[in-house]
Amino acid sequence: MAPTLDAHLWRSPLLGEPKHADIAHGRIQYFERGHGPTLVFVHGWLANANLWRSVIDDLASDFRCIAVDMPLGAHRIPVLPGADLTPNGCASIIRDFLEVMNLDQLTLVGNDSGGAYSQITTANDSSRISRLVLNACETPFDPFPPPPFDGLPAIAQSPARFGELLAGLRNPDIRNSEGAFGLLSKRPLDGEASDSYALPSIVEPGVLADFCRVVAATTPSAHHPAGRKLIADFPAPTLLAWNSEDRVFPPSHAERYAAELTNGTFVAIDDSYAFTPEDQPAQLAQVIRDFRADG
Prior knowledge:
single chain; alpha/beta; Rossmann fold; 8-stranded mixed beta sheet; 8 strands; globular
């Protein structure tokens, strides 16, 4: 079935109420549901708040769940043309969002490159973050971006070439292949969610421009020092929830990271690739619930 005209804009009702916050980068959309201790969810490249829909559906009975639409290629609202979209700049989006929202004593949850940005955010300013959850993302021992996506920054130096590459994601077979979402999700993605991830950069020039700048500026130069700083200076509880079958982010790196952090915990998740919130949302939700209940 062909996607509808607005398929790229779809957001699951499980996320809760759509809202927005205005920060220096521009307007950031987010979704809020539930009451209780605050969990802030950050997705990675070519995903959006939909990634967390089933996890939030499980946790919203006990937590205030806020899922941010980061400008990482599957968002609705482009940021300002001059916005800093380097790794430090993307981290500052998270920091500024927390500040504008006046959020304190929160648990920051990041998946994929959203986990890398969450580490940089926390290393730069942890004053509002009482706990950190990293799920299937770059550790200080991984390149950013990891193979086989490590060639993308070079391609993104040419917006035209990058746009041509992303245009292939119109084809569901390419989208589900090992070179795209098939390496990240063990099971085929839900059609509405998949369209919302793959299509925005294809149909919205401003979204493509944002994503191109994000990818072109990506190096480990901010992420690796952030990880080392967290190891040296971050005393708060940190959970590394990792997929035992992860094909992009080695579980052994996560176990090492957890061991070197002052208050790190490693928990294995079965039967999932890197998009754990898609493959195993119930397992991930339970791991987060247990982590928040521990102390």
